[in-house]
Amino acid sequence: MLSDKEQLRDISSIGLKTVISELPPASTGSTMTANVCKKITAQLTGAIGKQEDVSVQLEALDILSDMLSRLGGTLYSFHSSILNCLLPQLTSPRLAVRKRAIIALGHLVLTCSGNIFSELTEHLLAELKKNESTSTTRTYIQCVAGISRQAGHRIGEHLEKIIPLIVQYCNVEDDELREYCFQAFESFVRRCPKEIDPHIPNVMGLCLKYITFDPNYNYDNEEEEEEEMMETENGEDEEQESDDEYSDDDDISWKVRRSAAKCLEAIVSSRHDLLQDFYKTLSPVLISRFKEREENVKADIFSAYISLLKQTLPIQSWLHASDASGKDDVPLTMLQNQVPKIVKALHKQLKEKSIKSRQGCFSLLTELANVLPGCLADHIPALVPGIVFSLADKSSSSNMRIDTLSFLHVLLCNHQPEVFHPHIKSLLPPVVTCIGDPFYKITSEALLVTQQLVKVIRPLDRSCTFDAKPYVKDLFAGTLKRLKAADIDQEVKERAISCMGQIIYNLGDHLSTDLQPTLKIFLERLKNEITRLTTVKALTLIASSPLKIDLRPILGEGFPILASFLRKNQRALKLSTLTALDILVKNYSDRGALNLMKQLTAPIYSSGSAGASVTLHKQAYYSVAKCVAALSLACPKEAPVMVNQFIQDVKNPKSSSAVKVLAFLSLAEMGRTTNLSAQRELKTVILEAFTSPSEEVKSAASYALGNISVGNLKEYLPFMLKEIGSQPKRQYLLLHSLKEVISSSPADGLKPYVEDIWALLFKHCECTEEGTRNVVAECLGKLTLVNPSELLPRLKKQLSSGSPHARSTVVTAIKFTIADQPQPIDALLKGCIGDFLKTLQDPDLNVRRVALAMFNSAAHNKPSLIRDLLNAVLPSLYNETKVRKELIREVEMGPFKHTVDDGLDVRKAAFECMYTLLESCLDRLDIYEYLNHVEDGLKDHYDIRMLTFIMLARLSTLCPNAVLQRLERLIEPLRATCSTKVKAGSVKQEFEKQDELKRSAMRAVAALLTIPEVEKSPVMAEFSSQIRSNPEMASLFESIQKDSASLPTSEAMDMS
């Protein structure tokens, strides 16, 4: 390789590279790798040092980089000599040499020891302070950025010294230097979020100053045609030895703007807490730069703004109910005020030649419409011409059209129909043309848009003056063509069916003779396995149309097909079919109801009689019962016959338990809406069933008693309360019935009985049986919703008095008052939930556990209740994740000793809460503190480890950077779990348990491997090669990869 002949040098260096890439990784324990490395390294560093011939140096640097990135750990003893050989290369006269030296240093810092890392940073700092020439300073800043990108978490402690230097260099008149400064900032922001925190305002100020930095261009005259620019990538080109002065044609200020925009995007996406400042300072500047003349820069500015919008997206609205307004709304209001400026800056660009900038505009507007539904209502006239232009423009690429259509779809979904009515004339034709487009992705998007347009042209839920008639023909013809085609893409088929369903639902009365043939096509699609589910949903929609579409011609053939779907083993299909039957029976019920009912219930009767075990899903019984009730409502004449039939079924000793369960559930569904008091023997029949040997029959009977009481509170409720008081044996089932009454009755109906029920429940809230206490708590919670202002304070009073049992019942009752829909009780709860959460410090273990369950429910269903209390609550929560020695006891079972950990359930509950907080309150957590506790959980009991593995997988998508910084500490427990061996001769459960644990750990590993740049971590690289080299682990890993087909399979494993 050191020979004088170029051919020989090339061949030998390719040979060496190949050898190195084929060497087995160090973790396989092969000594060969280590020997080869030792032989080559000294020669390579020698070759790099004697810089006679540049091409030799470049090759040697390349090979050294390869070795360091693959086998850095093996070269441990050479690290300091490698460092000494690389540092002088940073001042080499050749830029290419410097560049490769930086790459090699980047690979070195991944595996080198702390001392070597410090030596390197000290050297770089010293050189940066000297500032001998701009050219070397550039190189050193690039080097700092490179190191930070590779091993960001290590550079954290040196940032205090580095940042002031880089800030100082931003002000030097040298564009390229500035670009590197911003690249360094960007990598600090992404890599060391905690350490850069104090410098953020400073960095942001610089970015905002330089994003508008365009010294050679005057933007005053907006209409001027844009000058085409020559872009020369300075420094990339090896021939260019010296940095000569640049004239205007080689203006590279765009690079500065681009790197500033990228740095801003990094800040925006990592600092959710600064949103308000962003809207004050950053948003107006970005909007003013939408006019940027340089394509690439404009793309980055758009992408920074889209990041800002994504950060503003209100977290799922049902989570943060209306009472959370106030603080969270400020950014939204600020954004709302800036919408006119955004539209003004963008709408002209929608007609520009450049496809890239149009796509940028559309993706920004799409995000905007998602974040603030309705915000573009006043600007539709400005946007429509641009949309039409992009759809009709012949030169538009297919992606351009798809982006435009998907923006239009979001726009139509998020705004009121009236806004679009003046523009339908221009919008509709291009969309219909897109339905006919030969490219299936365009067709499929266009069908989605058309479905939405149909709702807009004629909204049936409000009066509307717009006349849809002229447009029906085009819409219908375009969609019909796609509906008829059999040889098209699956997604297009499904969307054509849904779209046609929508057309018939909204415009069916305009279709006249076309309607029946189209319905016949639906019948065909119903028979096809691939399209049947979508067709069932479309028919459900059509059947519920207020236009009363005439479906009778297809029902004769359709009903049996639908009934046959109930026997198919596909849950989604069964549930959709039941919904469809339900609607069809309600709206088209003049066909024999009893006949239909026999078809519905046949599978249950037949399976019972043959003595075969019933394989129906539990949900299926409830759904069939609901259909039966719908039938009885539709045909009141038949109802009494049905009720008698069911009562006879229950009394008949020969009936199978499945038949009895169905009978009780059907009676329950019918009794809820109709008064069944005419049936004298109903009460006795139900109470007798309470003693049935089958658990299913018992619970169905108690469900029936509850629901029948809802239909007739006056007669049944007092009877039930009396029974609960006098029958301790049946108490549990009767309380379940009471729960049904409280949850299903309207509040006014219950009001007269509230006091009696309350008193009765409080008698039982100290019951020793936990199951009973839970039902009592659920009843108390649901009852509190009937009259919150009076009953909530009563619950609060109970907290201070009473035994631990009573306290735990009260706390659980609060859990049942928290629902995921907005409710009148929310404002009251928000005021006092803090008092209930104080029970997290209760001396009684059980009370702490139910308090955690209540906290979890609040965090899951209504985070707004607890968001502001987190600072006070988190220490108590984290406290419960610790293993308590005093709660672990030994139990002797015959000759064996068995340890029992009483604190396990509480820890489990605490970790479940932590998991929930990830989804709903991530922005309020100090993620590093949080990770400390996750780390402890990874070494805890089996159940806790299972939970923390799932948390780890979630964390690696939510905050990958924090996880990367802690990787070393997180990998060890995973490795330990994956490599445990079960003792030979253990019981089968033990093997299954370990297997499940390993699978779960592997899933966490697979998730970690999806973090970008994770493979740069030496710990991870070593662990993944250990997985590959161990056949048992490798096969487990592969099966996990197959399960989660959603993860990119090949990339994740290919990490050599």
From TrEMBL:
One of its GO terms (biological process) is SCF complex assembly. It comes from the Eukaryota. This is Cullin associated and neddylation dissociated 2 (putative). Residues 865-1027 form the TATA-binding protein interacting (TIP20) domain. Keywords: Repeat, Ubl conjugation pathway. InterPro entries: ARM-like, ARM-type_fold, CAND1/CAND2, TATA-bd_TIP120. The keyword Repeat applies. It comes from Buteo japonicus. SUPFAM superfamilies: ARM repeat. Belongs to the CAND family. Residues 222-250 are annotated as: Disordered.
